[in-house]
# Entry
Amino acid sequence: MRKIIAAFLLSVLSPLAFAQKGFKVVPLGVKGGTADGNLSAYMLAPAGSDAYVCLDAGTVSNGIDKAIGKNAFDVNAETVLRKYIKGYLISHPHLDHISGMIINSVDDTVKQVYAMEHCISVMKAHYFNWQSWPNLTNDGNAPALNKFRYQPMRENVETPVVGTEMTVRAFPLIHSRPYLSTAFLIKSGESYALYFGDTGPDSVEKTDHMQCVWTVVAPLVKSDQLKGVFLEVSYPDAQPDRQLYGHLTPKWFMKEFGVLAELAGKEHLKNLNVVVTHIKPTGNNEETIRRELNAENALGLRLIFPEQGVKFELK
Ligand SMILES: [Zn+2]
Ligand SMILES: [Zn+2]
# Structure
């Protein structure tokens, strides 16, 4: 009888535990410019796993040191870089999203670098070409030293993240025409996380790229499977639309979530975890952006302002 009760409890409780699983995040860098020791890079792993993928890689070793200082890891920096980070997802090839990965590549281990073709072609031609930096990748100018392996991603094709329990899909974004960026939808079990690289608002960029991403994730918001969204805000609302350079302000950020609210139903966005990335720390921008976002948050999003090295959960 006890066995039957135990089996019954397990069958009732385990799907619940599964549904809540989610992710953990260690931000290695959080700012959108000028702070050259603290640029966009977020380590993401399924809850309970130390097999991470790094979402962009503007700052790597400086962020790992900060994270160890804040007790995000109980191993040394070498182990985090070489063993915990299993691969890199690169949204676009701007230096504030990739320089940490390049600079640390000599000390790094064999890894996959996942990116769309528009990004890989720049890495090949301009960074890992022996002129800017030794070619530690598997392609491009000879000799190719074959440490980093390019994994070209096609739109909306699910790809396993080697060495982890996660898979990823990529979607193109417009980051000031004609330049492209990428959104990544990461899946672990039944949980999802959505990471946007730098992006302009659809109506300023005259496109529907963000809307396409919102359409894909709307059902996951309804079913409570989307555990968090990383989206950028680079400038305060005072920045004129003609000077956005492919970025968002608090007003545009909330307008974009308004599109998701229409697709998924407003009630499902209340308390949705939203990580605010890429604030450009000029003058009082950080304080202003935080104030404006909180004032304009009629949807009741759970806004997370990440700090370098401070671990948090998305569940
Ligand atoms: Zn950037
Ligand atoms: Zn950029």
Observations:
- The CA atoms of residues 281 and 287 lie 9 Å apart.
- The mean pLDDT is 95.
